[in-house]
Amino acid sequence: MAFLSATLERLGASPTVAMSNRAAALKAEGRDLIALAAGEPDFDTPAHIRAAAIEAMERGETRYTAVDGTPALKAAIAAKFERDNDLAYGADEITVGAGGKHVIWNALLATLGPGDEAIVPAPYWVSYPDMVRFTGATPVIVPAGPEQRFLLTADALAGAITDRTKWLILNSPSNPTGAGYRADDLAALAEVLRRHPEVHVLADDIYEHIAFPGFEFATMAEVAPDLKARVLTVNGVSKAYAMTGWRIGFACGPAPLIAAIRKLQSQSTTNPSSISQAAAAAALTGPQDYLAEARAAFLRRRDVVVAALNGMPGVTCDTPVGAFYVYPSVAGLIGRRSAGGRALDSDEAVAEALLEEAGVAVVFGAAFGLSPHIRISYAAADDELAKAMARIAEFAEGCR
Ligand code: GLU
To answer: Which CATH code for domain 47-285?
Structure first.
């Protein structure tokens, strides 16, 4: 009798987490490695947010809180949705979990089961299909490649919906491509969704604040208020305020779904860290200057990285409108051999060769459902990025 459960077999380990951990371990061993695998800002959490956490500890806010968030944090989240997205939600329509990932996990587990389907445009963040599969439901992967700006079209959505579809999962700006849905792109999808009242939308907006000039962030519940009762809008402080380790994500949506998530969370993690919640409230209510500073740094880095990649043989790279990833095609390297003698027969082989021969850690495209690409996170110091680009260029030039 196998000890591990059959349910667990539906889940693969996260490739982004695996690559980030592997890069960290190699660096700790003293390897000369530039890690561009982890999807997290390289900045410190702003000082006033750290101070708020210390004050919360000193005040004795070290006990359990309400399962799905303190009243203070929920009020800060409600104000955030009003301010940024023109969305009004009450406390019973807001949930807080241990990161956006946890909130998405809860929402899918609370709603999906065998026979159900969730539409996931590809390339996708690695965890969506696995999370869907874990519930026993089926992820319906819909291609959304560079020829369509990495965005799901209304026709493709219409073609993917069946009477089993429960969710459409959207992520904008996107991990791994940095593509983003404009208000009119969302309006076209909403038009299709109006014909299918049973389909809900999970809008993963975690990169909302990393949106570059020329792209105006929009989200489904705001663009199509008539669909609000079937939209779950997920966000968090991790990427916006450089708070990945604090583990605070949140969402707003219909009260019955929020109540279901609360029930699930009450039997698993209970509340997210009380101290992190105080810090998150300070992030959302305090000065917002950090957002523009981080955005400017990411924009500068994006331009350096995109230009460098497009100058390399065998590599082409679209210009993202947000987030801090690029998703270049490495089609021109496939079928070749690296200077170190590796056969580059897949994007996984390219990523492996980059790690071993160039000392740069990236994540292979197959993990995100669209090959042959690699994902590069440019949330790294400027000099590290410049060095990494020089190494990747030398690698590409050395391929035969
Ligand atoms: N979302 C980040 C990434 O894609 C963090 C790791 C993860 O949870 O996938 O790298």
So the answer is: 3.40.640.10
